[in-house]
Amino acid sequence: EPEVTQTPSHQVTQMGQEVILRCVPISNHLYFYWYRQILGQKVEFLVSFYNNEISEKSEIFDDQFSVERPDGSNFTLKIRSTKLEDSAMYFCASIPGGQGMNTEAFFGQGTRLTVV
Amino acid sequence: AQSVTQLDSHVSVSEGTPVLLRCNYSSSYSPSLFWYVQHPNKGLQLLLKYTSAATLVKGINGFEAEFKKSETSFHLTKPSAHMSDAAEYFCVVSDRGSNYKLTFGKGTLLTVNP
């Protein structure tokens, strides 16, 4: 069964460093998302990506964040200068879309980011 | 704008007794509704989904949910709880007005007592 894969599973970084979280969505999906979950809290929407551009972003997704789909398979989230409060589990998701608009989201297993 | 309210932050049941996790939603369009489960230190697993077909939806592990438009509810039920059901459960809504992004409820922690 196709699945969304995320790497690494756990990343520890020093405050102020740049991190790149990587995701490989399911190959024929059209919509891509990043969500985050701070420990013990609910899952929050960060950004959605469709047709090679950002379609929506939340207030959390400030200038320190960026997303790319550089090669048609990978979907990356970059945090330029990490802060302690960026520590969270980051989930990538993709939706098939297309005719009939299948809206079921498929999630990766997440990357736990720890900023020290 | 879409939103989800999970009415209980914590539900505790005994093994073998019924489970009810309550969820109300708000959406300006015909919504898709989902329940996801998250076991400790694990990812998000889809339990079931409603996407404008049958209003009573059956999912994995014996869970089901009923979409009630008049009550804007999508409560999750299971006739008999198992110890392995202990986890965090998230009710989720999406619609075309939000470009199909998912909006999560705050979650309900289900505890199953022996």
Summarize the structure.
The complex is a heterodimer of chains A (116) and B (114). With 116 residues, chain A is mainly beta.
Task: Give a written overview of the molecule.
The complex is a heterodimer of chains A (116) and B (114). With 116 residues, chain A is mostly beta strands. Chain A contains no helices and 11 strands. Chain A has strands at 5-7, 10-13, 19-24, 31-37, 43-50, 53-57, 65-68, 75-79, 88-95, 106-107, 111-115. In chain A, strands 2, 4, 5, 6, 9, 10 and 11 form a 7-stranded mixed β-sheet that branches. In chain A, strands 1-3-8-7 form a 4-stranded antiparallel β-sheet, with no helix packed on it. The radius of gyration of chain A is 14 Å and the shape is globular. The mean pLDDT of chain A is 92. Chain B has no helices and 12 strands. In chain B, the strands form 3 sheets. In chain B, strands 2, 5, 6, 10, 11 and 12 form a 6-stranded mixed β-sheet that branches. A 4-stranded antiparallel β-sheet of chain B has the order 3-9-8-7, with no helix packed on it. Chain B has 114 residues and is mostly beta strands. In chain B, strand 5 and strand 6 (45-50) form a beta hairpin. Chain B has strands at 3-6, 10-14, 19-21, 23-26, 32-38, 45-50, 56-58, 64-68, 73-78, 87-94, 103-104, 108-113.
